[in-house]
Amino acid sequence: MICKECGEKIESLTRICPHCGERALIDDELDTWSFIADPAAKHKMPPEIPLNEPDAVPEDPAEQMDGLQRMKEYFTEHSSLYQVVEDLDYMVQGIHRPSFGLWMFSGGLAAALVYFPLSPFLPHFVWTYYFVVWGVVTAVGFLHSGRRYERRMAEYAVLRRNAENDLHAMYNNCSGCFLPLAWTPPPLINRMIAALQSGEAASVEEYMEREPG
Question: CA 172 → CA 105, 137, 184, distances in Å?
Fold first, then answer.
């Protein structure tokens, strides 16, 4: 597995990279993620792969159980795809839009550190110079951080679209799938199987209507 942030090799399924301390993504296991190494591809939004409509749920309870067991095995084999999407969502939550108020404070502090030590050497202490330096530092810093924020969000949007497309392609390749994509994570299928086996739910449709997906 390769860390997306620093490019170092790390052990498979490592959540935090020991080299850079950032959250790692599973990209060695996904051949379609080779675009990460291509800087031009990071900003090119790929088209979305449409989802197939799920098949009709079998009426026979035994067929429903057999189908659930089969889908459980299939989606468990590809469970890393769900984790990639979750990791990306988690990482995006840690990216915050720049605060102009914070940059005003930082700009004022930076201007003070630059201007006040030089003030004894100036013929006249002019407050106008201080406010000019303050405004320049604030404006340049805020605009630079804003561009960096937009660039990172655009890159993560492309990463998430590719992760979603991997997930959609995997779902579309599941033959005879009668569950919507939102119900295919293995833990949800396990709970559904347990509910049908215990008699808590009489059918797949009843369980999905009663439980949140």
Answer: 52, 52, 12
Partners of residue 16 on adjacent β-strands = 23
Strand partners, 36: none
DSSP structure class, residue 23: B
pLDDT for the residue 177: 94
Q: How far apart are CA 193 and CA 184, in angstroms?
A: 12
pLDDT score recorded for residue 32: 40
Nearest to 179 by CA among 207, 160, 157, 148: 207
**pLDDT score at 26:** 46
Selection from 57, 54, 69 nearest residue 204 by Cα:
57
Distances (CA, A) of 183 to 151, 177, 187: 33, 11, 9
Give the Cα separation of 38 and 43 in Å (integer).
10
CA angle 78, 79, 81 (to 5 degrees): 80
**What is the Cα–Cα distance from 137 to 178, expressed in whole angstroms?**
58
